[in-house]
Amino acid sequence: MIKFFRKIRQDLLSRGKTGTYFKYAIGEIVLVVIGILIALQINNWNEVQKGKMKATTILKEIRSDMFKDLELIEELKPYWGREIMYFKKVLPSFNPRKEITSFEGFDTISKVSYSELFGYDMPFRSSKSAYDAMIADGNSDLIINDTLYSNIQRFYTFNAPTNENLFEILRQESSDLNYKYAHVIAYKPYKNISDLTDEYLIADLNIYFQSKNFYYWRTFVINQESLKDIISQIDKELKH
Question: 3-class secondary structure for the chain?
Fold first, then answer.
């Protein structure tokens, strides 16, 4: 193609048609510039499409992690709920979160369970590998929906660390209780719940279970609502 245009220019010069030659040369330059602009536009369009495809992959992976979180929440809720409800047997005035329901056999419980009074269950730890990878790779700008990105970021930079901090506080409270009442845990002087009349012990347990109550609400109730809402937003974004 270049040789063809060059031949035309040389032919014009050889015939002394200088004016026509310059007009042709200018036209050729314009065509080249237009070609470059079209190539750049196509390249930009390709890059945009690649970015959209990458963003779709990222959102699907984050969505998958969030579904894992929802599954874990559903798995852990009954265990934490049972422990919290159990303390109501010890202290009837204690009010578990409204989301915590009674369990089968609750009404017939009469024995003291030291593990449920002084221990704690498995903590909730959010699956965040997809979010961490997005941040590490510098791909956060690919999520162009600012509201969606803000909600995802808030969940992983606020909700998730808050859950872990609350659990650490709870774990420390449990450790303090176990140290303070080591003799009670070791010798197990109380067989039946009705025998547990130590006001100081009950008061300390009440503080501990208030913390458990808050942990349950903040970790399971709030997180579950947030996760479902974000997943719904991701689904809408993926349909666009």
Answer: CHHHHHHHHHHHHHCCCHHHHHHHHHHHHHHHHHHHHHHHHHHHHHHHHHHHHHHHHHHHHHHHHHHHHHHHHHHHHHHHHHHHHHHHHHCCCCCCCCCCCCCCCHHHCCECCHHHHHCCCCCCCCCCHHHHHHHHCCCHHHCCCHHHHHHHHHHHHHHHHHHHHHHHHHHHHHHHHHHHCHHHHHHCCCCEHHHCCCHHHHHHHHHHHHHHHHHHHHHHHHHHHHHHHHHHHHHHHHHC
Phi, psi (5° rounding) for residue 111?
A: -90, 150
* CA–CA gap between residue 210 and residue 23 (Å, rounded): 87
CB neighbours of residue 55 within 10 Å: 20
**pLDDT tens digit sequence for 144-202:** 999 999 999 999 999 999 999 999 999 999 999 999 999 999 999 999 988 888 999 99
Global pTM exceeds 0.85: no
- Which tokens sit at 217? 């609400």
pLDDT, averaged across the chain: 86
Quick: pLDDT tens for 42-98.
Answer: 666 656 667 688 999 999 999 999 999 999 999 999 999 999 999 999 999 999 998
Query: Which residues are bridge partners to 111 per DSSP?
Result: 192
d(CA 2, CA 176): 85
Within 10 angstroms of residue 131's Cβ, the number of other Cβ atoms is 22
